[in-house]
Write a structure and sequence with these properties.
155 residues; mainly beta; five-stranded antiparallel sheet; 12% helix
Length: 155
């Protein structure tokens, strides 16, 4: 993997690694196809297709979204920074797929809600989970937890 060395679990804070080792035994970062890694590298994304650090709840602290493999399942887990540690939430599970990856939507970024039929701006940094074989999903902090919604493309 081209980006694996640069975005290994070593970039995760120790409390997150400890939680993953305890609660998700045998976990590893989800594998993505080399084409996706190449696209991320050539586009100079400041994050990996399976690991994002951003402020997802708008409190000024760094939170983490991690796409992992555990046994025969992929999981997207968000770790919200909450003193004195991190609050994990598993926000999505699905079969492993090397063409599934994370994307970051920055606070204030424009998007279009195809369900409501109107444009909007993200209230906080938010997570996109893009799939090869089904509708993408976005995950946003609603003040209590991360909620997901389908995000059909406009292609």
């Amino acid at each position: 993997m081209l980006l694996a060395w640069a975005f290994s679990s070593l970039l995760l804070p120790a409390p997150i690694q400890t939680w993953l080792d305890r609660e998700q035994p045998g976990w590893r970062l989800a594998y993505v196809d080399p084409q996706i890694e190449t696209w991320f590298r050539e586009s100079a994304f400041p994050y990996a297709p399976n690991l994002i650090a951003a402020d997802f709840d708008g409190d000024g602290r760094t939170d983490y979204a991690v796409h992992i493999l555990v046994r025969d399942e992929s999981r997207l887990i968000v770790f919200r920074s909450t003193p004195p540690g991190f609050a994990p939430q598993i926000v999505a599970t699905h079969p492993p797929d090397r063409f599934t990856f994370l994307i970051l939507y920055r606070k204030g970024e424009k998007d279009f809600d195809f369900i409501a039929g109107k444009p909007f701006r993200y209230a906080h940094d938010s997570i996109g989970l893009l799939y090869d074989n089904k509708t993408a999903r976005t995950f946003q902090w609603d003040g209590r937890r991360f909620t997901g919604r389908d995000a059909p493309g406009d292609e």
